[in-house]
Automatic annotation (TrEMBL):
It is an enzyme of class 4 (lyase). This is Uridylate-specific endoribonuclease. It comes from the Eukaryota. The gene is ENDOU. Keywords: Disulfide bond, Endonuclease, Hydrolase, Lyase, Manganese, Metal-binding, Nuclease, Repeat, RNA-binding, Secreted, Signal. Its EC number is 4.6.1.-. Residues 45-87 form the SMB domain. Residues 96-369 form the EndoU domain. It holds the Pfam family XendoU. Its cofactor is Mn(2+). It comes from Catagonus wagneri (Chacoan peccary). Monomer. It catalyses: ribonucleotidyl-uridine-RNA = a 5'-end dephospho-uridine-RNA + a 3'-end 2',3'-cyclophospho-ribonucleotide-RNA. Its main location: secreted.
Length: 369
């Protein structure tokens, strides 16, 4: 991968960023798939921090909920009650930023199934500015992936993951209906993932944090939060967190989700994905790395899509799950190989499972240095 260039100061939507300069700056403000989350979970309450905890600074809001609002004295009145205890409702249960960074480093080191340098040849080609992402111009004549060692795909978690990708209809508004085999494939992926050091590290951490009393409870929750169906469109049960984040969807003529390098490679190989450009290439000199890119997916455009490159399926699944459990609907500060990285998750508030638990609406990388 290329040497990292300074991160983008300008935001995709023109919003200013006024956070601590030591923290990673976002290379996109809000990906378009977040539009699929209910309005109550986005920025519909400008006078409240509801759904806005730790968001980027927006000068158009009358009050703020970012990390430095207390320093500037411009927090919303409910900032302390809604954002004061990240992760859990009581400070004694909260997972700290330091703990998140520590466990993410352990997960990073545990990913022995990741691609090695020689397994992937990436051709990132032309980098554009954030102001050009809406142009829909193909500035890269060559595919993104020059070479991938497909022996990776025979590893149990890769094979189980790939089997899931063709189980979905990408258009929202069309209900998903799983066969017995497809449901079994979900269980197979979870079973194979839980055998890995990555997921054992995650479960051990969450068990120590009193989030789960047993591994089976953890697996059951993962199945519900990731594979449970809810409705983004007019049809009942037309989406899930897994479909959105890893497989990708099309809503209102735009690509939403689609944050997985394996899916991208396979679709590009079939001639269904046309790589246009990128706005960010991460600082890691080995895999996994991060790329924020623009592409066309069989006739539909993705304005900004971030993805890990070269990571194992369980690695992405673990980090997104960690952030959704520890920081649901908020930014989640992590550290990978000594480099800070931030993941944003959103909850789906229109329906729940279990005792009021929320599904994953989306999860993606929003910043890194």
């Amino acid at each position: 991968m290329r040497t990292c260039v300074p991160l983008l100061v300008a935001m995709l939507c023109g919003l200013a960023w006024a956070e601590d300069p030591k923290e990673p700056e976002p290379f996109l403000e809000l990906e378009e798939e977040a539009e699929g989350a209910p309005a109550s979970n986005l920025y519909s309450a400008p006078n409240s921090c509801h759904g806005r905890c730790w968001e980027a600074f927006d000068r158009h809001h009358p009050c703020h909920c970012n990390a430095r609002c207390q320093e500037f004295g411009n927090c919303c009145e409910d900032f302390e009650s809604l954002c004061g205890h990240e992760g859990f409702s009581h400070s004694s249960d909260a997972i700290t930023k330091e703990e998140l960074r520590s466990v993410s480093e352990k997960i990073y080191r545990a990913d022995t199934n990741k691609a090695q340098k020689e397994d992937i040849i990436l051709n990132s080609q032309n980098r554009i500015s954030p102001s050009e992402t809406r142009d829909q111009v193909d500035r890269c004549p060559e595919p993104l992936f020059t070479y991938v060692n497909e022996k990776l795909f025979s590893k149990p978690t890769y094979a189980a993951f790939i089997n899931l990708l063709n189980n979905y209809q990408r258009a929202t508004g069309r209900g998903e209906h799983f066969t017995a085999q497809q449901l079994a494939e979900q269980d197979t992926f979870l079973r194979e993932a839980m055998k890995t050091a990555v997921m054992k590290e995650l479960y051990g951490f969450l068990h120590q944090q009193n989030r789960y009393s047993s591994e089976q409870e953890f697996v059951n929750d993962l199945k519900n939060m990731w594979f449970g169906l809810y409705s983004r469109g007019s049809e009942e049960g037309d989406s899930s967190g897994f479909e959105h984040v890893f497989s990708g969807e099309v809503k209102k003529g735009k690509v939403t989700g689609f944050h997985n390098w394996i899916r991208f490679y396979m679709q590009e190989k079939e001639g269904l994905v046309d790589y246009y450009s990128h706005i960010y290439d991460g600082p890691w000199d080995s895999y996994p790395d991060v790329l924020a890119m623009q592409f066309n997916w069989d006739g539909y455009y993705k304005e900004v899509g971030s993805a890990f490159i070269g990571s194992s399926p369980e690695f992405e699944f673990a980090l997104y799950s960690l952030c959704f459990i520890a920081r649901p609907g908020k930014v989640c500060p992590l550290s990978l190989g000594g480099h800070p990285l931030t993941i944003q998750t959103y909850t789906w508030d229109k329906s729940t499972y279990g005792n009021g638990k929320k599904y994953i609406a989306t999860a993606y990388v929003v910043s890194s240095t």
